[in-house]
Amino acid sequence: MSTTPITPESTPQGRTPATTGDRSGLPMEALRREFPILRVPVRGRRLVYLDNAATTQKPQSVIEAVARYYFRQNANIHRGVHYLSMEATQAYEEVREKTRRFLGARDTREIVFLRGTTEAVNLVAQSYGRPLLGPGDEILITHLEHHSNIVPWQMVCRQTGAILRVAPIDDRGEVVLEEWKQLLSPRTRIAAFAHVSNALGTINPIREMTALARAAGAAVFIDGAQAAAHTPIRVDEIDCDFYCVSGHKMYGPTGIGALYGRLELLESMPPYQGGGDMIASVTFEETVYNELPHKFEAGTPNIAGTIGLGKAIDFLQEHGLERIAAHEDALLDYGTNRLREIEGLRLVGTARHKAAILGFTVDGAHPHDVGTILDQEGIAVRAGHHCAQPAMERFGVAATVRASLGIYNDKDDIDDLIAGLHKVRELFG
Ligand code: PLP
User: Fold this and answer.
1) How many A from CA of 146 to the centre of ligand 1?
2) Quick one: which atom of ligand 1 is closest to the CA of 223?
3) Domain end among 266, 286, 317
């Protein structure tokens, strides 16, 4: 059986997609056609999707792979002796190998599938942190973290008596490295930081931070949620202990993500959850846990999502992360310059090394009002604290407007954003 292509109900909007306007050489017209949702009008207008840091749109190949699994392959994995179960198991495990290569891990046992970054932080906090930590031990994070890289560490500190230390950021939104180094001490057992800040766009110097933290004897956890779709990742070169990604932020499905963990550490860690698939044998007296990585994958996993994640990795690799980064960097420069034209607009997050995330406020207009006015124009941005309230507080704001760019965005999208912001100025200026 062949699956019918899933297409949006609408016809494409009358617009010639712009070329990249940069040297990345991404085939923008063809690339945009891979995303059915970009052809669906929003409020009668073409969709200008600038909320990629919240979640990215999905290419047809990902959508079809998920549908194809349910059409043709659906079965539970690992335990079945029948054809479909074996096929589904093979498809699932192939994605583990693909993810290993994508992240630059050495061994497929180092790749754990889970729901996403949030679950990864909780897993490491509870399975690595909780048995290790005691009163007087410290966990070092930074002021720019997403709540999911703050709260699980706070929870484990409360459970163990460990202390959470927070390194400051400067007015650009960069971690003050000198102060971060000062906070590293023999008491630091875990250093956790984002690769890329979702609220400010800051790209942290993760290699340098990892080397320093490991030299101080701390394990390093990196939140790669905002990095995976935008820059190549090689955990073997970064030399971190843990690194995690969320599928839905890299053109894959929701509810699936991956955690890389250094083999020796994963081996020494107890399971995070108990249940089916994470065991080798069970009696009422004693349970023997399964080998890695299954020890950390209790219960039926998101099989369709994992298969979709595999297609998302294919998609990223076909276009090439170097080219994607070049394209987004050029758009970031263009967008930053154009935003500076808007009177009363303040950029929040101006790190020298920055990903394509544009956070800002507009004098006299609440970010939610800005977001609502832009929405009337078919422009999707995010307004709020972006699950990074401490970072907002550092800049003296409760919320910002955030335009976050992805592979399919082009200069036309930025121009539409700017036109929308001029309307905001007319209404609130
Ligand atoms: N970390 C960062 C930097 C993020 O941007 C996000 C989501 O916005 C998360 C963690 C949480 O990711 P998820 O909701 O996929 O678990």
Assistant:
1) 7
2) 1
3) 317
